What does this fold into?
Amino acid sequence: MASDRLYFTANEYADRIQAIQKRMNDHGIEVLCMTAPENIFYATGYDGWSFYTHQMAIISLDQKEPIWIGREMDIACAVETTRMPEKDLIGYSDDYVDSTEKHAMEFIAQELTKRGWGSKKIGVESENYFFTARCAEKLTQSLPNATFIDATNLVNWVRLVKSPQEIQYMREAALLADAAMKAGIDAMEPGTRECDVAAAILAAQVKGVGDVFGDPATEILAMPVGQEVNCPHLAWTGRPLANSTPINLELGGVRRRYNSGISRSTHLGKAPDSLKSLASATLEALEVTLDAIKPGLLAEDVFHIYNGALEKYGQHKPSRTGYAIGIGYPPVWIERTVSFFPGDKTVLTENMTFHIMCGMWRDEDGFVESETFRLTDSGVEVFTQYPRGLTEKA
Amino acid sequence: MASDRLYFTANEYADRIQAIQKRMNDHGIEVLCMTAPENIFYATGYDGWSFYTHQMAIISLDQKEPIWIGREMDIACAVETTRMPEKDLIGYSDDYVDSTEKHAMEFIAQELTKRGWGSKKIGVESENYFFTARCAEKLTQSLPNATFIDATNLVNWVRLVKSPQEIQYMREAALLADAAMKAGIDAMEPGTRECDVAAAILAAQVKGVGDVFGDPATEILAMPVGQEVNCPHLAWTGRPLANSTPINLELGGVRRRYNSGISRSTHLGKAPDSLKSLASATLEALEVTLDAIKPGLLAEDVFHIYNGALEKYGQHKPSRTGYAIGIGYPPVWIERTVSFFPGDKTVLTENMTFHIMCGMWRDEDGFVESETFRLTDSGVEVFTQYPRGLTEKA
It folds into this structure.
């Protein structure tokens, strides 16, 4: 193993496995089959970029250590990024890769059976990109005596409250996000191509700040420009920036796979009054909301406080006001547990971490402002520090 | 719509839809539900980065135009990136997003039913990241009168032979890949941090060459260094490069979502003889193989020719020698159809495009060399042009 690829102590991993096993027990699950790369990473440290082929980490109630099953060539990645002994790293050969005749879940089923887990109560992550409809079909067909239980987000809920080391990585991720935001806004000049602004951001995300370098990005840089600022999720083009134009950025810093997201809007030249009004209303509502957040609040309260503060300006954001954030692999840093949205009754507690997303997309324009923060014992610690509000570059 | 986000003529899209409908008909499918972002892009041009929430493009045999269903806020992305009329863009509200009570597939089922498709023969992409086990469960439960047919890779097979415009984009993607490879290798010096080499590559990938700028990367930059070069799929760290060390790079250029991949190995300082021998054997086998590839060959022949040429050097590559490549979204540019692997009897024909992957990973070291090419009428046109072989930087 490479010691600079081990991001947490052995004790912290042991605690995680225990916490997962406790939740498994609560849900009547004896064997948990994790396919979400962020959950595999959380439980084992595995950080190979191999999740495009089928792989799994498995935790059983009857043993302390997880096992990893993946493509043979990627065992080397597990050796470098985890403390797992080689006996717990199982590889399948390439005749399982993109085959129409053999499926990796059949191989995995054999490995489960070998270990006496073939007729257990098995948890699977049904709502996860890396457990496809066919994965479910092949695994269940291959284990006719097992009982399958939906374990979607089981590990995600364990991940919700962060440890001191996790929080430190998210602070560092925010440093990276701030530096990338600054690099992007600094690069924006009339005539500069959008892709050159993007290049400045992508480089800053990984060069980092001092010793804090960045990992591969989780989400793509959203960078709509001009009339497209009403789009939340568009990438850059090669167009030169006009003399007078709005540019929205949503980007993240990633440190040891922990993500902090940030969004800011910029206007080259003098911004129209309508956009300025939207910006100041959004900013006021964001700050009212951040001031109000503290342990004991419900997740849905955040949505209502934010929209309540917008109301006097005749504005409303129908989409969620944010979500739990932490570990991420492409395409997403969202934790899939808590959303700031009506009906989400999760009680907020200390050291939960969120991305509060005040994206206001209207037919004619759009303004974005977002921050990543944690709950403290009495309020919030906002990780992202780039100056708030609309930047006008005259 | 933004004209610089329309990458193909309306005629080319019409041809694609016709080709897909013909294949649907051959497979007894009346309504095709596409969830793979690359297939949605191929059929409609949709290029929003919104696939982390559920979305679908649907093609029915009974109409010429596809429809798109996704999150409400992303309709704006469809307006900018497709020629689809707004009546064919259907959005669901945020109460379907990461909800445990409502599922987007229930909404989609209602829309199918409204259009009279609720009891049709419906094709779904069972082996696709964006059609999870739960998606299948919710869609089938919501459409009890439908007949479901597995349509995994149906559109991927239509994509296999490229049009002149697609080939042009792949040539441009190769320009980007070459430029990024050069930027990376140029940046490698003793003492330079790995992340700074990565930053140079990421910036070059999107700055591009002249007017040819790059899109967001599809796969992450694989960049194992030192003892880790036996790992295919590891990202960079922040370590300074040693005076004498091997570095492997696998990266891609992306142009209008079309990908060309390239891999090269570098050694700072004098390379060990064992690595040099591996490099020259690999290079010779690659060149023998590229010389032999022509229309009429079977996909598996490529594997055997490559390994046959390696044999006299006592080397063997057990994993596939490459695969079809084209459109890609994270995490993968692989087309999932043809693999250069025993048992793949696909007959190679003109204008199929492949990434030939000669990654030789051994316990003690590793050497990588890959190119992206198309079949011509009599041989190959290799898109990637960066000088082949091991680069020794003294």
